[in-house]
Amino acid sequence: MPVNEAAGGKSAYHHGDLRKALLDAAEEELAEKGVEGFTLRGCAKRAGVSHAAPAHHFRDANALLSELASEGFTRFSAAMRSRQASVANDPRAALVGAGLGYIDFARANPALFRLMFSSYRTNFDREPLHSSANVAFGILVESITSTIGRNPMDDLAGMQHVAAAWSMAHGLADLLLSNKMPFLAAVAEQDVEAFLAGIITRAVPSDF
Amino acid sequence: MPVNEAAGGKSAYHHGDLRKALLDAAEEELAEKGVEGFTLRGCAKRAGVSHAAPAHHFRDANALLSELASEGFTRFSAAMRSRQASVANDPRAALVGAGLGYIDFARANPALFRLMFSSYRTNFDREPLHSSANVAFGILVESITSTIGRNPMDDLAGMQHVAAAWSMAHGLADLLLSNKMPFLAAVAEQDVEAFLAGIITRAVPSDF
DNA sequence: ACATTTATTTTTACGGTGTAAAGATTGTAG
DNA sequence: CTACAATCTTTACACCGTAAAAATAAATGT
What we know:
2 copies of one chain form a homodimer. By secondary structure, chain A is mainly α. Chain A has 8 helices and no strands.
């Protein structure tokens, strides 16, 4: 019997590691064609297998996309943490850093970001997407915890901070991605970061 | 020659007014199946015509959806104005009202809202979508103009207000629609409006 | 009034999609 | 070396959007 334990230790049969190859192909396909243009057959072609081959590794196209979204959330969390690391040891600055990382990721991986928040082709009730998305959410909660000095999920005022910070970063990312704010072209390249940071900062006022 | 002038004065041939019937059918189809599940053939069936009939009234499926999105933006603007009308004569309150109207509409018409901001099936370069979307944007700009006492599009600080207010309302609407904030179930029904208003208010600080 | 033209709709057809089922192929176990 | 099980391919089916041709009905010109 082949080595086929759950945690990705799939051994090589005909292709080598088709599961991994399909995930790579899916990310290419997604980046090139977008969430709406994504096709499972295109993935299979990229991986050099027949169009029905993926069926044995993923229940259906959405299961493949859900797993890709999960990888996305892991990298998404890394993007936020990376921004936070490059910032002074100030809770508010760390919160804004998370927001900038949020937007960094969205701009660097537009189609993947869309997939992660489309919630039509993805299933957040199954692993590993459920966990990886929760980790990302945890970064937000943690940042707000440091800022206000308590767990924000314990009361309404705290949840309001969470909702505000998340909405601001997410709305900004989503509108930037769909080119709804062409007037921002007026912002010089070196000023963009401060411009965005100034917006994110508003979400959690200093007099909470 | 039939009465077929541009402005919707299409007269009745076989069906009566298939163009209008298709738009109505499309809204039903959209509401029931969502943006991703929408099919042109399903629309045609709802309107009681063959699957190829829409071709003579709309270039393709995206053209039909673009026109539907345009109607959506018109109602969207009305939702914002309606909220503004039911508010004291205070510029800041009017701005928050627009944001609440934004969210009202999104929650009342989730699939249509998604379509309007998906920008994949819709073409904002063509009329009437171009204009109706601009009218909606104008409400935002106008609200901020009243609040800060000048045209916000004239300088970076003003554009920052626009981007912040829009991002906050939009992010909130988008995350609510995709059920990303289940913890908000803890907010009692009669407190929801104040909760959301409190968040929107943060986007444009009082000391600008 | 009647033939002609034009607008509208249906029928037919084609390439593309996801996925289910059956057949072929290949690594592993006994 | 045989049998089995995992993997992949082939085939098939029901959808989809849309183009082209055929059919139908309204409007027009004489």
